[in-house]
Amino acid sequence: MENIEDIKKRILTEIAAAENLKSLEETRVLALGKKGCITEMMKSLGALSPEERKEAGRVFNVLKMEIESALEARKSLLEKAELNARLAEEKIDVTLPVRPETQGRIHPVSKIYEEVTAIFGEMGFDVAEGPDIEDDFHNFTALNIPANHPARQMHDTFYLPKEANGSRDIDDSYVIRTHTSPVQIRTMEKQRPPIRIIAPGRTYRSDYDATHTPMFHQIEGLVIDRNITMAHLKGCLYDFIKAFFEVDEIPVRYRPSFFPFTEPSAEMDIGCKKSKDELKIGAGTDWLEILGCGMVHPNVLKAGGIDPEEYQGFAFGLGLDRLAMLKYGIPDLRTFFESDVRWLKHYGFVPLDESSMTGGLSNNGGLAR
Q1: How is the chain split into domains, by residue range?
Q2: Segments in 156-280 forming alpha helices (H)
Q3: Residue 310's pLDDT is what?
Q4: Quick check: 368 and 350 in contact, CB under 8 A?
Q5: How much is the pTM?
Q6: CA separation (Å) from 249 to 283, 331, 358?
Q7: Where are the beta strands (DSSP E) in the chain?
Q8: Average pLDDT over residues 62-77
Q9: Contacts of 83 (CB under 8 A, 6+ apart)
């Protein structure tokens, strides 16, 4: 027994003298490791008689528990001391002078939002907003999107758990909106024609690559009145494209397409010149798809509470992020959301220089780089 007491005192002394976690671990291994002194002593239990084994086993277990408790207590103290030392070493003196870059930068998406709003504001459009979380009716059904449409599938749409609203009926399901088109329906429900709005905002789809992200920005336009035609749509979009890209003339063309919420539908292309290292908007031999548009489908007007026999209108939609990529030469959409200050310093804009049709769009604020 005296030998065991001597061993215990020696080990406890070594534990108390450990100056760091590494030396403490070495002490633990020497005592309780596979070849530790306590482990070797416990191996000798097999040579004892049953009565001796019972008593010796109890003594060894008590010794082991005392050593383990001392090790844990010392480890806790050393970890706390190391953390305090690290915090002291990494502390920041907030009284030091600030960095020379005292001015922030406006994100390109925010700048594009200002530019687009300025252009359509000059045309007499109001800005409308809606919720990011939409019900199935406003996001799909009211927009003439059938139940079997691919846009409703789980691989494209972020559905909220149905239990969240206490219902399992598909008509009562909620989604994080896949486009800003539901704002058109909500506007028609609460406002009588004439209607002339744009609806910019965040949208969400299950996609991620160089030209797609799960969250992105869209802007939709809606005009409803008596005697609205496709010619009004073409004139509106042509004036917008010229003002946005700040060119005097730009070739455009419309290709027939299909969207459930417009009929007829079209995709608008603009002229450009493509090379290996450059994309120049304007006169050229190439074409670039820029947006989708069309005349509002009668079913959509009915869903919004408007008589399609009396009123008609046009709608269009385009991505704000893609506009920023095209106008300011940003190659990868994913970098928009990586919160890289160096990227923002390169592509960002000087604050307080607001975009306007009289003062200029991008030329007024200018790239910060």
Answers
A1: 2-89, 108-351
A2: 182-190, 230-245
A3: 93
A4: yes
A5: 0.64
A6: 8, 25, 19
A7: 126-127, 133-135, 174-176, 195-204, 215-225, 252-259, 262-274, 279-281, 286-296, 312-319
A8: 88
A9: none
Please give the CATH topology (third level) of the domain spanning 108-351.
BirA Bifunctional Protein; domain 2 (3.30.930)
Is the per-residue pLDDT at 164 higher than 70?
A: no
Q: How far is CA 112 from CA 72, 191, 196, 320, in A?
A: 59, 27, 20, 7
Q: What backbone torsions phi and psi does residue 160 show, to the nearest 5 degrees?
A: -85, 150
Give CA 106 to chain center in angstroms: 18
- Render pLDDT for 218-245 as a digit per residue (tens, 0 to 9): 999 999 999 999 999 999 999 999 999 8
Collapsed DSSP state (helix, strand, coil) of residue 359 = coil
Residue 261, helix vs strand vs coil: coil
Counting runs of H as helices and runs of E as strands, what totals does the chain give?
12, 10
pLDDT average, residue stretch 36-45: 81
Do 347 and 331 meet the contact criterion of CB atoms below 8 Å apart?
no
Side chain identity at residue 359, one-letter code: G
Cβ of 322: how many Cβ atoms within 10 Å? 20
C-beta separation of 355 from 118 below 8 A: yes
pLDDT value of residue 28: 86
At residue 305 the predicted structure's pLDDT band, cuts being 50, 70 and 90, is very high
Average pLDDT for 43-56: 80
**SS3 state of residue 82:** helix
Phi, psi (rounded to 5 degrees) for 266:
-150, 160
State the average pLDDT over residues 16-22: 88
Q: pLDDT-based confidence at 185, cuts 50/70/90? A: very high
CA atoms of 149 and 298, how far apart (whole Å): 19
The CB-based long-range contact list for 322-330 (8 Å cut-off, 24+ gap) reads 322/211, 323/112, 323/116, 323/244, 324/108, 324/109, 324/111, 324/112, 326/279, 326/281, 326/288, 326/290, 327/112, 327/244, 327/245, 327/281, 327/362, 328/108, 328/362, 328/367, 329/279, 330/108
